[in-house]
């Protein structure tokens, strides 16, 4: 867990240092802002998950069973995975044509 928290924080700090170094380069500034935004979003999700786990363990949250659109959820997940892969030069091919809506 500590690695999962430290890595994004160090990434944010590093991007701030890079942005400071390139203070006269608007393109670099924008790239750094985007990376800071993405990394802080990941960190926020992680903190929310930790807080939710605490609520689950204390009985504050009751899980509810309900229907959902599995294909729509997969589309969102795949979109994120494809963007991450593309940013690293990796093409992701996923076939979920046999998945049915429940």
TrEMBL record:
Pfam families referenced in this protein's UniProt entry, alphabetically: HisKA
SUPFAM superfamilies: Homodimeric domain of signal transducing histidine kinase (SSF47384)
PROSITE patterns: HIS_KIN (PS50109)
Gene Ontology MF, one: phosphorelay sensor kinase activity
EC assignment: 2.7.13.3
Keywords: Kinase, Phosphoprotein, Transferase
Annotated ranges, domain Histidine kinase: 1-102
Catalytic activity: ATP + protein L-histidine = ADP + protein N-phospho-L-histidine
Coiled-coil features, chain-numbered ranges: none
Listed name of the protein: histidine kinase
Species of the source: Treponema berlinense
Lineage per the UniProt record: Bacteria, Pseudomonadati, Spirochaetota, Spirochaetia, Spirochaetales
């Amino acid at each position: 867990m500590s690695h999962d928290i430290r890595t994004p924080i160090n990434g944010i700090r590093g991007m701030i240092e890079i942005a400071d170094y390139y203070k006269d380069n608007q393109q670099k500034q924008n790239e750094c802002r985007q990376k800071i935004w993405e990394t802080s979003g990941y960190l926020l999700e992680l903190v929310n998950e930790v807080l939710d786990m605490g609520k689950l363990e204390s009985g504050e949250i009751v899980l509810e069973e309900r229907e959902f659109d599995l294909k729509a959820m997969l589309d969102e997940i795949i979109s994120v995975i494809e963007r991450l892969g593309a940013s690293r030069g990796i093409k992701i091919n996923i076939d979920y044509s046999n998945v049915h809506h429940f």
